[in-house]
């Protein structure tokens, strides 16, 4: 069994975070306060913390690195799903994501680490990656 991780991220607006992570992504909400919210991200604890310094119109800055000929935002976070769950999320994301950073696709095709992946940002600019492997145990840390 995988031990759940805890990740705290900064957001510009708590209500906006609740709408994005809770309503749009469909993550169950845990405890909350006026300046933070716990979300259950597929068994992991992601906490959105208000950072008033970001400002309502601002976003968190990201850098990009090349990965398999794509520009991957750093930092980013997300989860690894089973392929059917990833496909369902990719379909649902098309309803609320205005612009994907990386459209849903297959990366490292035909290689040991072949994976489905997609990247998009939350309203505060935090980059999220959702990926899936046909064989998570065999492919997650596979090397060429």
TrEMBL record:
Matching CDD domains: VOC_like (cd08357)
UniProt-listed Gene3D superfamilies: 2,3-Dihydroxybiphenyl 1,2-Dioxygenase, domain 1
PROSITE patterns xrefs: VOC
Ranges of residues in domain VOC: 3-133
Protein name (Swiss-Prot/TrEMBL): Glyoxalase-like domain protein
């Amino acid at each position: 069994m995988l031990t759940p991780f805890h990740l705290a991220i900064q957001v510009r607006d708590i209500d906006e975070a609740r709408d994005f992570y809770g309503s749009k992504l469909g993550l169950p909400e845990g405890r909350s306060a006026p300046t933070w919210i716990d979300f259950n991200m597929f068994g992991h604890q992601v906490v959105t913390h208000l950072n008033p310094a970001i400002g309502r119109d601002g976003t968190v800055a990201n850098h990009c690195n090349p990965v398999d000929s794509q520009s991957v935002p750093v930092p980013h976070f997300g989860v690894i799903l089973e392929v059917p769950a990833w496909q369902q999320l990719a379909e649902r994301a098309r309803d609320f994501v205005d612009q994907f950073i990386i459209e849903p696709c297959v990366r490292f095709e035909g290689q040991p680490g072949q994976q489905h992946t997609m990247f998009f940002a939350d309203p505060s600019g935090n980059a999220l990656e959702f990926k899936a492997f046909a064989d998570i145990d065999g492919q997650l840390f596979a090397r060429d």
